[in-house]
Write a structure and sequence with these properties.
It is a single chain. By secondary structure, the protein is α/β, with parallel strands linked by helices. The chain has a domain of 66 residues: Hexapeptide repeat proteins (UDP N-Acetylglucosamine Acyltransferase, domain 1, 3 Solenoid), CATH 2.160.10. Helix content is 21%, strand content 27%. It contains five helices and 28 strands. Strands 5-8-11-14-17-20-25-28-22-23 form a ten-stranded mixed sheet, covered by helices on one side. A six-stranded parallel sheet has the order 6-9-12-15-18-21, with no helix packed on it. The chain has a six-stranded parallel sheet with strand order 7-10-13-16-19-24. The mean pLDDT is 95. Pfam families: Hexapep_2, THDPS_N_2.
């Protein structure tokens, strides 16, 4: 975020947007969307102590793009109607990514780094960031402003929730080398740290209690680096619930991944 472009855009969307004329605002919005696409600007960045900070001014700029847009018909297979400043991107060989045919859409203002593969049909929304060498498998949603690191595997049906408002809210973050199993759902700004492994069907929000069997602690809002988490359950409270044999969803950390251990291997071992 230290480039001259980022500094100029931050100043504009922090202090001048409300006073700017429509032509200037549109010009700055276009610059912001381009900077998001090339990775010069991100909707959230990691601080030196590992904390992830959302950049409210980026979200203000994205919201301005919708406000300043018109609803138009777009030239897209099957037809499309959307806001004029945030259409689907058209990617080419120069982008260094593979977009396999079959219904995938990457929206304006989304970043795909070199080496990313997107299987159909998937969707990457405005402000989303997918790092180098990551796999976005079929039926995956990378929601608005969600941050995905390098070498991440998002398996079939993974949902990363998006957030534009409130502008200060942290987006979903999946750090480098994480493996997210099929049909997982990550929402409300939850952070999955580097190298973590999620078994199929794990669902996490900022308020979900994660039970760590290794450290014998309860976690919320963040999955530690290298943690291997599987869907679990715990008894529901109360005599009636006990009589009915009811239980509640409870994700469980069953082990921690060794740095040299393949994600698929460690997951297979954990599920046995």
């Amino acid at each position: 975020m230290s480039t001259a472009v980022a500094t100029t855009l931050e100043e504009f969307f922090t202090d001048r947007l409300d006073r700017a004329g429509e032509d200037e605002a549109r010009e700055r919005v276009e610059e912001l969307l381009g900077a998001l696409e090339d990775g010069t600007v991100r909707a959230a960045t990691r601080g030196e102590h590992g904390d992830w900070q959302a950049h409210a001014w980026v979200k203000r700029g994205i919201l301005a793009a919708f406000r300043l847009s018109e609803t138009v018909e777009l030239d897209w297979p099957g037809g499309a109607v959307d806001r004029s400043l945030v259409p689907a991107r058209r990617l080419g060989l120069g982008d260094g990514v593979r977009i396999v045919p079959g219904g995938t859409s990457v929206r304006r203002g989304a970043h795909l780094a070199a080496g990313v593969v997107v299987m159909p049909p998937s969707y990457v929304n405005v402000g989303g960031h997918v790092g180098a060498g990551s796999m976005v498998d079929s039926h995956v949603l990378v929601g608005s402003c969600a941050q995905v690191g390098e070498g991440v595997h998002l398996s079939t049906g993974v949902q990363l929730g998006g957030v534009l408002e409130p502008v200060g809210a942290r987006p979903v973050v999946v750090e480098d080398g994480a493996f997210v199993g099929a049909q997982c759902g990550l929402y409300e700004g939850v952070v999955v740290r580097a190298g973590a492994v999620l078994a199929p069907g794990v669902s996490l929000t900022s308020g979900t209690t994660i039970y760590d069997l290794v450290t014998e602690t309860e976690l919320r809002g963040e999955l530690p680096a290298g943690a291997v988490v599987v869907p679990g359950s715990r008894p529901a409270r109360g005599a009636w619930a006990e009589a009915q044999g009811l239980s509640l969803y409870a994700p469980v950390v069953v082990k921690y991944r060794d740095g040299s251990t393949d994600a698929a291997t460690v997951l297979e071992d954990a599920l046995r």
